[in-house]
């Protein structure tokens, strides 16, 4: 415990789902955390707000504040690092977790949807990295973690059983493939300045409310295709506290390779190892 003591972390997309889990777990490791999402308030059907996520961390004794920014909007994200640094000082850890989906057959993807997708899933992480890097390089220390997806590496064509699913996910997967490629290039450029850049994807489905809505039926029919949020979150903590460089890895693979145990999101208990099963009844808020 205490892997991130006295460090400052910004986690995008942390009002709910995986980002919220990462924020909570980083706080349990001693980091002061800035949580960001596009909205402060209610999300209609999707539970989870920035206020609620911040209050949960504070109630557990952690340091957290909310700093909203709609990453789709270039100007709204242009000062997110500066606004974040006004709270606890320089950002040591940036987790680019926020993402959106755009589903459609490859032959019919509309330009305006592709633009939005690339804006949130690729340009925003790059912009935030470019904002935070000068300070990290000057201080000789920093960690940037981009959250990727297995959909960036589709199986060889022709697809068989999962044909339709593989088709509609192609635009989202393309945006994540771009992020993965960027990660490796940036990692090599800045490692000698003490900045560690990596990309991490869940090995399968983490049943967040969003994922449950779209692929919950696949997860329930194939329990092996689900992953506990704690596994993904623990792998993220490993990458933002260790000395990994330019990794583009799956959560389970990384934890298995480094032999790291999986803890509860509040850090208090060891739950198991990289291969612990998911609770299919539990949808992550
Ligand atoms: N769940 C999975 O199985 C799975 C699998 C592969 C990869 N991933 C990746 O893991 C990450 C998290 O996924 P998740 O399932 O936890 O997502 P989620 O539950 O849908 O949460 C997405 C988060 O991103 C924020 N967000 C969305 N659009 C935004 C925007 N324009 N500006 C700022 N924030 C925005 C959302 O808040 P607001 O709505 O308030 O903006 C929310 O906090 C994503 O990068 C996703 O691609 C997830």
Number of helices: 10
Which class of secondary structure composition applies to the elements? alpha/beta
Radius of gyration in whole Å, from Cα? 18 Å
Spatial ordering of strands, largest sheet: 3-2-1-4-5-6-7
| Straight-line N-to-C gap | 25 Å
Bound molecules: NADP nicotinamide-adenine-dinucleotide phosphate
Number of E-state strands: 9
Question: What spatial form do the alpha-carbon principal axes imply?
Answer: globular
Major β-sheet profile: 7 strands, parallel
Helix content: 40-55%
Q: Which H/E pattern describes the elements?
A: EHEHEHHEHEHHEHHEHEE
Describe the structure.
- Helices cover 43% and strands 14% of the residues.
- The strands form 2 sheets. It has a 7-stranded parallel beta sheet, with helices on both faces. A two-stranded antiparallel ribbon has the order 8-9.
- The two termini are 25 Å apart.
- The protein has 285 residues and is an alpha/beta fold.
- It has helices at 17-28, 50-59, 74-77, 80-88, 111-139, 163-168, 170-190, 209-221, 229-239, 251-258, and strands spanning 8-12, 32-36, 63-66, 93-96, 142-147, 195-201, 248-250, 262-263, 270-272.
- It is built from 10 helices and 9 strands.
- Strand 8 (262-263) and strand 9 form a beta hairpin.
- It has a single domain (8-199, 229-272), classed as NAD(P)-binding Rossmann-like Domain (Rossmann fold), CATH 3.40.50.720.
- The structure holds NADP nicotinamide-adenine-dinucleotide phosphate (NAP).
- NADP nicotinamide-adenine-dinucleotide phosphate binds at residues 12-19, 37-39, 43, 70-72, 97-100, 120, 147, 149, 201-202, 205-206, 208-211.
